[in-house]
Design a protein that fits this description.
By secondary structure, this protein is mostly beta strands. Helices cover 2% and strands 43% of the residues. It has a single domain (2-379), classed as Neuraminidase (6 Propeller).
């Protein structure tokens, strides 16, 4: 099925970097059409293999291998066995899947998921495993190793994070959300509410900003984050992160070494129970977002485009919108950013990825039995 999507206005979006951002919003028909390429049960993340096949994670604890055919009807979906047990419920379950930069040589893939603890506790973890594919269109994981855990495990089933990216330096970067516990985001004895930087085996690099403190603090690159659900490097090696803020405070941040981003001390939003949080401009010692949204977009997934199929978008970022049911395009000017367009997708968008040919790929979120579709965006003819 192929359908066209029109862009929405951004009149309600509050952009930190521009007082008249809505005038810059694209209101013309976007230059893409959508091809439905599959349907999954609560899909969360995806990544392309070197041979062009696609891995898709499902929140209850499944990993699918998608062989893309000439048409959607020709696509074939197989199963990957050996998935670890996950703590499914609320926002918890199986999430991220990312390849090691040298996957073609070493076979390592990295998984982010929620792990049960004692009593009713849980926490996000990152594990790596060897992936072997078989001739039947499936495969298996082996040698699974948990290389990082959120500390401490806590009650509740929200704000895990566990997004993963490899940087130009070959290091492993992880988003660790604050599990809806607020204060741990400022506590250096906890890795909740932080951006984590590790070696690919889970060990701590000696040049991390807080390495001399030892312990949990040595893992930390930045702190003061809420629910970080997107992480991506631009072509200049700058690290960008998006996170769900409280009521009226979603953020796109430029992540810098050792910086404190302020949550829950400051935010451009307020608590859901009505308690006021001071804005970032009241505490300039905390790093302020480059873009913030009120009303929120509920960001999920972050990708910075580098392909040729949409040359006009090279270097732009794309964010999936959950409550906003949108695909949001961000333009950068060095270290500043602005929302340039918002495309109404009609469904919650969980993940955004770039395909080998430069197409854009989206995963719809699904938690009500409606089915989460895999969508391919291709240039409008």
């Amino acid at each position: 099925m192929i359908r066209n999507i029109l862009t929405t206005a951004c009149a309600a979006a509050l952009l930190v970097v521009s007082a008249s951002a809505c005038s810059a919003q694209e209101k013309s028909k976007p230059p893409f059409r959508i091809v439905e390429a599959g349907q999954f049960k609560e899909p969360w993340a995806m990544t392309f293999l070197p041979d062009g096949r696609l891995l898709v994670s499902e929140k209850k604890g499944a990993l699918k291998l998608v062989a893309l055919g000439a048409t959607p009807a020709d696509n074939r979906i197989g199963d990957i066995s050996g998935i670890p047990a996950v703590a499914y419920g609320g926002q918890g379950g199986f999430g991220e899947v990312v390849l090691h930069p040298h996957f073609a040589d070493n076979g390592w893939i990295y998984l982010g998921y929620a792990e049960a603890g004692e009593g009713d506790t849980s926490g996000g973890v990152v594990a790596r495993a060897k992936l072997a594919l078989d001739a039947k269109g499936g495969g298996a994981l082996s040698d699974l190793q948990v290389i990082w855990r959120q500390v401490p495990k806590v009650t509740g089933h929200g704000h895990y994070g566990h997004r993963i990216a490899f940087g130009p330096d070959g290091k492993l970067w992880i988003t660790s959300s604050e599990r809806q516990k607020f204060d741990p985001a400022q506590d250096m004895q906890s890795n909740l509410g932080k951006i984590i930087r590790l070696n690919d085996d889970g060990s701590v690099p000696a040049d991390n900003p807080f390495a001399k403190q030892g312990g949990i603090a040595a893992q930390v690159w930045s702190l003061g984050h809420r629910n970080a659900l997107g992480l991506a490097f631009d072509a200049q090696g700058r690290l960008w992160e998006q996170e769900m803020g409280p009521k009226g405070g979603d953020e796109l941040n430029l992540i810098e070494r050792g910086r404190n981003y302020g949550y829950p001390i400051v935010s451009n939003g307020d608590h859901y129970d009505g308690r006021v949080i001071p804005d970032h401009d009241t505490r300039p010692e905390f790093a302020a977002p480059k873009v913030s949204w009120n009303p929120v977009i509920s960001p999920a997934g972050l990708m910075i485009y580098s392909g040729d199929r949409f040359p006009q978008w090279k270097g732009d970022a794309f964010i999936g919108g959950l409550s906003s049911k949108s695909l949001v395009r961000i333009e950068f000017d060095g270290t500043t950013a602005r929302e340039a367009a918002r495309y109404d997708m009609g469904q919650r968008i969980r993940e955004v990825e770039q395909g080998p040919d430069g197409s854009l790929w989206l995963l719809e979120d699904e938690d009500d039995g409606s089915g989460g579709r895999l969508l391919k965006l291709i240039p409008e003819a």
